[in-house]
Amino acid sequence: MRKSRVLVCLLSLTLVAALTAGCGSSGGGQASAETIKLGFLGAKTVNNANYGVPGEKGMKMAVEELNAQGGVLGKQLEGVYEDNKGDAREIANIATKYATVDKVAAMIGDPATGLTKVAAEIAQQNSVVIFSAGATGAGVVEIGDFVFRNTLLDQFAAPSVVEWMLKDKKWTNMAIITTANIGYSTALTPVFKDAIIAQGGKIVREDSINEGETDFTAQVTNLKQVQPDVVVFTGYYKEAALFILEMEKQGIDVPLVGGDGLYGSDLVKIGGDAVNEKIILYCGFSADQPSTETDAFIKAYQAKYNEDPDMFSAQYYDAVMIIAQAMEKAQSADPKVYKTELAQLKNYPGVSGQTTFLPSREPVKSPVFLVTVKDGQFPVLLEKIPTSASE
Known about the structure:
The protein is of the alpha/beta class. The protein has 2 domains: about 5-150 and about 290-355, Rossmann fold (3-Layer(aba) Sandwich), CATH 3.40.50; about 155-285 and about 370-385, Response regulator (Rossmann fold, 3-Layer(aba) Sandwich), CATH 3.40.50.2300. It contains 13 helices and 15 strands. The strands form 3 sheets. The protein has a 7-stranded mixed β-sheet, with helices on both faces. Strands 2-1-3-4-5 form a 5-stranded parallel β-sheet, with helices on both faces. Strands 11-12-13 form a 3-stranded antiparallel β-sheet, with helices on one face. The longest helix has 20 residues, at about 50-70. It is elongated, with a radius of gyration of 21 Å.
């Protein structure tokens, strides 16, 4: 999902005319608008729809709840819901439209780091807050002071997971599989590697695959030669499910552990019995053992949509609520004004966990939820482990 700075710059150049038109009259106009507009960033079809569809539901639910309570600053919220299809050019066009035509007070999303970076460049240039409900990789908030996110970061989560694997599970010998053509994976792999080495683990094999591949015979054959205790898989759920199917075929009976890129409702559909209690991933949300806030959210979500919420629906919901709180405290829907209040968020008791922003505007969330597949159900909470972070 992570796209390079080069791609961001190229996209920005192709949109220069539109951006120039919008720079002088973007977020600041919200104070006098009849409604306060929020723009949804996410895929509803094609790539990454497993993330965007529940995210849109969570966002819509938050907007409806706030409006039922009288809105924000006495005005109704209005969501604008475009489909970026998981495509960099689509999200660039949509972010430009939100900033210059719809004149939104904030953009909510995208869950993908690479796509968030594309949109964040445009949001920053147009002085519009963008609040990602999922981007976990590096180099996001550094784009500028209008850029925020409320997800569990890899840099804080992965070391905690490595500690759990080494101390609690006694998994010492680890293999790492990287999806070479996805920035998310190539960025997450070194985070895991550094933590494994620092904590005394042993990397017995490193290998790579590509997104879209379906035959992992060679990579799994290589694993048989080194007999790892666990496979650290830093890519996405589709390839992970197919990879573990091949592991089962070749008789390798070890777990596969990764980040929230493995979080997808199609994980069980693709992997079947092979993923049962074999794929473990970390994330910042679980419906099991809920807090008071999470329990209320789950019940309301189930009543509205007749399904369980997931990490993305919870984080989009929280993003809207956090922004609404910042607007109320700042007494302004102008991003140039309320972003200062937003940056001071401390111990927010969201439905996706407690969130605090560091001075860098990076989020600290706790705990880390380890979830798995059990008896065909996903996600099922395996364990909660603490995390901590500092500047």
